[in-house]
Amino acid sequence: MSTVGTRLHVVSGKGGTGKTTVAAALALALAERGRRTLLVEVEGRQGIAQLFETEALPYEERRIAIGPGGGEVFALAIDAEQALLDYLQMFYKLGGAGRALRRLGAIDFATTVAPGLRDVLLTGKACEAVRRRGPDGTGWAYDAVVMDAPPTGRITRFLGVNDEVAGLARVGPIHHQAQAVMRVLKSAETAVHLVTLLEEMPVQETADGVAELRAAELPVGAVVVNMVRPASPAAHPVPDADPGLAAALARAGLAGAGDLAGPLLAQGREHAQRLALEQAQRAELARLQLSVHELPLLADGADLAGLYRLARRLRDLEW
């Protein structure tokens, strides 16, 4: 796996495409031969904990898995209220006063009513992990950070909110922090990967998301096509009726062969149409001029064993 230059992998996708599963599998794939990867959740759904079959993630970095190559995967569920307390302590040294504000409900109020503040805190915490040095001060604390980000429809606004903050707060620590976050998000260290299915709506939303990210000068990574069905023979036209099929079924000794032929032909036509649709969606994705990676549909669902299977597929891809 090539990861030269990229240390923050932002994974987005239309709801229902399995972006959290892909983010988790990518974190496992990046944990190779002693490498440390941090998997970050920002939506408060505890989807990562469910995938790894562990208890709910606290607001602290905790090891949750060993990658296929022997590295470690840590996870963090970012809590916006706690992140705001961290910022208040970092910039204004509030200490116990910050905790008092939380008890009074002021922290929850601020993160609820201030436009974009929650996204500023979430992106800032993830970028802090990217920039953080290890205990000896020489290497990085994490070789890679993977963010399970919001859906494609709002990913550009989510990542670009610090540009707005930097424009509003033109001086002071908040301005400098917002600029520092955007330097990470717009750098070669970052790649925004979009997860899709071979269906019209997810592919169209992926194309729209790529256009928005490029317009905002945010670095687009790869497109991951998830839940791809096993390869099938090339589709051929299926007739509306085929007397020969009914005769063949009868010779095979199937009772009610005449009644079976019609439904089998209908199923064949549906299968051929689906294959044609999938090929059309592949052509649409190719027009984006990005790396496109396909992941198979997991027959048993996205359990822990399935995650490791997907991780092994992702290890050998260019990121």
From TrEMBL:
Gene3D superfamilies: P-loop containing nucleotide triphosphate hydrolases. InterPro entries: ArsA/GET3_ATPase-like (IPR025723), ATPase_ArsA/GET3 (IPR016300), P-loop_NTPase (IPR027417). Residues 7-180 form the ArsA/GET3 Anion-transporting ATPase-like domain. PANTHER family: ARSENICAL PUMP-DRIVING ATPASE ARSENITE-TRANSLOCATING ATPASE (PTHR10803), ATPASE RV3679-RELATED (PTHR10803:SF31). This is ArsA-related P-loop ATPase. The lineage of its organism: Bacteria, Bacillati, Actinomycetota, Actinomycetes, Kitasatosporales.
